[in-house]
Amino acid sequence: VRVVSDADPCREYLAGPAQENCTLAILEEENGIGLSIIIDQEGFIADIGYDDVMELKYKNHLVEKIIDASGRSVLPGLVDAHTHPVWAGDRVHEFSMKLAGASYMDIYEAGGGIHFTVNHTRKASEDELYNLLKERLMRMLANGTVLVEGKSGYGLDTENEIKMLRVLERAKRELPIDISSTFCGAHAVPKNQTAEEATQNVLTRQLPEVMRLQELGELHVDSIDVFCEKGVFDIDQSRKILKAGRQAGLRLNFHADELTPICGTEMGAALGAEAMSHLEEISQEGITAMAVKPSVAVILPTTAYLLRLNPPPVRKMINQGVPVALGSDFNPNAYCLSMPLVMNLACVLFGMTLPEVLVAATINAAAALGRQETNGSLEVGKYGDLLILNAPKWEHLIYQMGDIQQIIGQVVKRGRIV
Ligand code: NIG
Ligand code: FE
Questions:
Q1: Which atom in ligand 1 lies closest to the alpha carbon of residue 82?
Q2: CB-CB contact of 153 with 225 (8 Å)
Q3: 51-74 mean pLDDT
Q4: What's the gap in Å between 226 CA and the centre of ligand 1?
Q5: What CATH number is attached to the domain comprising 393?
């Protein structure tokens, strides 16, 4: 994990021509010193160096493609560490209710919110869900995201949770974006169950079936998630589910201390959770516990903005050594799939600096998903996943709000322009 405050944030590579059976990304800076990035046929970064050196070194190699990024900036592909991308049934009708003052829990308790989306998602076929997911993921990619965490959680029963996870598997096979899957059967309490019954359902039915399919190689689930929240799954129920997930070999990455301070973070840290999300209501003890582990804090500015929550204490977390990552939290409540907008919100609403949000949306987000060896920075041995910006300074990505197609010139995924 690269801790935010120490990070070297902008790796603007400058370059000239180079070779081998490879793709080359080039950026030329005004002072004329250039760097080349060599991406091999398998899509990994094979070399990075000054133009003159690289020119000599790769003189006799065949270059499949040269991408000329002269005068532009090159960044690692963005990583979105928290999304709910598989669902049918948007909630545009709830937006005006929220603007009029209804809280997240008011809508949830009235049987709307997640419940509305669960009804629609249960009715949708795998193909319908896949088509919805595909469109969303391709737009994320166009907004610079090359690795995304995606949760189940709108099925809330074995059949429908597995349907969602299968849809994510299909996207992994068919689309040029990497996905880390999370089983979130405990995302809400189904209307006809108590939280205790829902917990038992996850423990005795959903999780065992997910793990059976995982063993057969039909699913590749990385993490387990719970909406640990007052009025949803309490601390004990969340702990039981997370422990069972851990025993089954999953990473722990869950919703903690979002709406009410219930010390979910302390519980998660005690279990060794790799990441925890939201954290608007984290306590000082929670911050200390996350720094010691360390556990990655996945901050979700869209949700805090839309629900007008207290800002999470990001500055305190960074100062005290908690690695901070960012996620879009794309879901029917927070319909945002653009990480550059998320980065902008994190700067303006939470006081993060530009280098901090870049680190949080690349290497730290990769670390939240356990993918820091392959994603999150431009280094030899990692995936050749790059953003080439139509701008001489990378900060334009965040500064120029809401017109991202103009700024992102090319997204390169494993050496191929996508
Ligand atoms: O992260 N808090 C729980 N999960 C989502 C919301 C999902 C939904 O409302 O559909 C979140 O904000
Ligand atoms: Fe979420």
A1: 1
A2: yes
A3: 81
A4: 11
A5: 2.30.40.10
How high does pLDDT run on average in the chain?
89
Q: Is 333 in the pocket of ligand 1 (CB under 6 A)?
A: yes
The answer, yes or no, to whether residue 13 has pLDDT greater than 80, is no
- Produce one character per residue of 383-405: b if its CB has 16 or more CB atoms within 10 Å, e if not: bbbbbbbbbeebebbbebeeebe
pLDDT tens digit string along 291-309?
A: 998 899 999 999 999 999 9
Measure 88 CA to ligand 2 centroid, in angstroms: 16
Determine the Cα–Cα distance for residues 254 and 222; give it in Å rounded to an integer.
12
Tokens describing residue 80: 């979105």
DSSP for 50-109 reads: EHHHHHHHTTTSPEEEEE--TTSEEEEPEEE-------S---HHHHHHHHTT--HHHHHH
Distinct helix (H) and strand (E) counts, the chain? 18, 16
Residues with CB under 5 A from ligand 2 (ion): 329
392 in the same domain as 358 = no
Whose atoms come closest to the Cα of 113: which ligand?
A: 1
Residue 113 beta carbon below 6 angstroms from any ligand 1 atom: yes
- What is the number of structural domains in the chain? 2
Judged by phi (left if over 0) then psi (alpha if -120 to 50, else beta), residue 279 lies in: left
Domain that holds residue 391: 9-74+378-417
CATH at residue 136: 3.20.20.140
Amino acid 52: pLDDT: 77
The closest-lying atom of ligand 1 relative to the alpha carbon of residue 307 is: 12
Least confident range of 82-91, 226-235, 275-284, 380-389:
380-389
Q: Could you write out the DSSP letters of every residue in 150-188?
A: EE--S--SHHHHHHHHHHHHHHHHHSSSEEEEEEEEESS
Ligand closest to Cα of 149 equals 2
Please compute, for residue 74, the number of CA atoms within 13 A of its CA located in the half-sphere on the CB side: 29
Pocket-testing residue among 154, 184, 227, 262, ligand 1, by greatest number of atoms within 8 A of Cβ? 227
What average pLDDT score do residues 338-358 get? 95
- Give the DSSP H/E element, type plus range, for residue 225: strand 221-226
Q: How far is the CA of 82 from the centre of ligand 2 (A)?
A: 6
CA of 104, closest atom in ligand 1:
9
